[in-house]
Amino acid sequence: MITRRSVLLAGGIGLLVAHRLSRGQPAATIRRVGWLSFGSKGSAHVYAAFKQGMHDLGWLEGKNVQYQFVYADGDVDRLGALAGELVGRNVEVIICGNALATRAAQRATKTIPIVMVYVGNPVGNGFVASLANPGGNITGMTQQPEDVLGKLIGILHEIVPGARRIAILLNESNPNYPVFWGAAQRACSALDLVALRVLAGAPAQFGAAVEQIVRQGSQAVVVVVDPVYLDERVKLQALMQTTRLPVAYAFREQVVAGGLLSYSTDLAASFRDAAKYVDKILKGAKPGDLPVAQPTKFELVINLKTAKDLGLTIPQSVLVRADDVIQ
Questions:
Q1: Which of 42-51, 74-83, 193-202, 223-232 has the lowest mean pLDDT?
Q2: Which of 96, 184, 193, 219 is the most exposed place for a label (fewest CB within 10 A)?
Q3: pLDDT at res. 180
Q4: Are residues 211 and 126 in the same domain?
């Protein structure tokens, strides 16, 4: 016979068991991932690609991972303080999308893992001991600046073989500046071209750089990999258009903004792949034990509208190699 006392007792036992079970199942720990950005929020598609990569690996924002983004808005002098801010927030990993940010993060911490993405010459810059065995607290993905820049200049030469004087736009504050300039000189020399060095390290210097390009009698322009040029791609290309010269860029985003062509890896895909490093580190791997990855796929992007505006005909031999053609 079921009595009121037995019902109450059963209910009390049930509540006690439920309480014990709840105490035995603590809330999921939320891991903290920091991102030190040299640029601004303008490259939202890159941040979204990384988050998607994390999501695909089971990291759900607000449930088991939290992202801490800080932006230098193109001001290299702010990177050090922002890196220190991320360290103060006790993030467990720091993402850096270029050599400038990686350098700042490296100076801010020797213990928090740093995942670099699309950073050139990591050994020469002292970020890692070697690609196979990074050591220390930095790993991630690198690029091949010499090969890629040389290939970009070669493709531009195929399109405008009559252009002999090639302006190379460089940022002297970029740690990879010597590597880029050396690679550009070698590539131009191999094609019997003249490389003209033009410097611009901030948007305020773009106008003077464009004036120098025209004054030097440049016949084409190559813009090297640099976060300033990527983040301010619309402003830069608007000024470049006034020269009526063909301009080759590092990234497809710059071609979408009006540039003639680009040759590089897919930037968004690189950041999506960076999530794999973060995933391994959050699960206990040491960054020094994770080999640095090198790109295996590069894409050629051509803007036919820009070519038409410049009165250029893209050779069929180049068009058939293009991975994407913007009409």
A1: 42-51
A2: 219
A3: 94
A4: no
Q: What is the pLDDT of residues 34-64, one digit of tens each?
A: 999 998 876 788 999 999 999 999 999 999 9
Count how many domains the chain has: 2
Whether this prediction's pTM lies above 0.90 is answered by no
3-state SS of the chain is: CCCHHHHHHHHHHHHHHHHHHHHHCCCCCCEEEEEEECCCHHHHHHHHHHHHHHHHCCCCECCCEEEEEEECCCCHHHHHHHHHHHHHCCCCEEEECCHHHHHHHHHHCCCCCEEEEEECCCCCCCCCCCCCCCCCCEEEEECCHHHHHHHHHHHHHHHCCCCCEEEEEECCCCCCHHHHHHHHHHHHHHCCCEEEEEECCCHHHHHHHHHHHHHCCCCEEEECCCHHHHHCHHHHHHHHHCCCCCEEECCHHHHHCCCCEEEECCHHHHHHHHHHHHHHHHCCCCHHHCCCECCCCCEEEEEHHHHHHCCCCCCHHHHCCCCEEEC
What CATH number is attached to the domain comprising 108?
3.40.50.2300
Over 50: is that where the pLDDT of 8 sits?
no
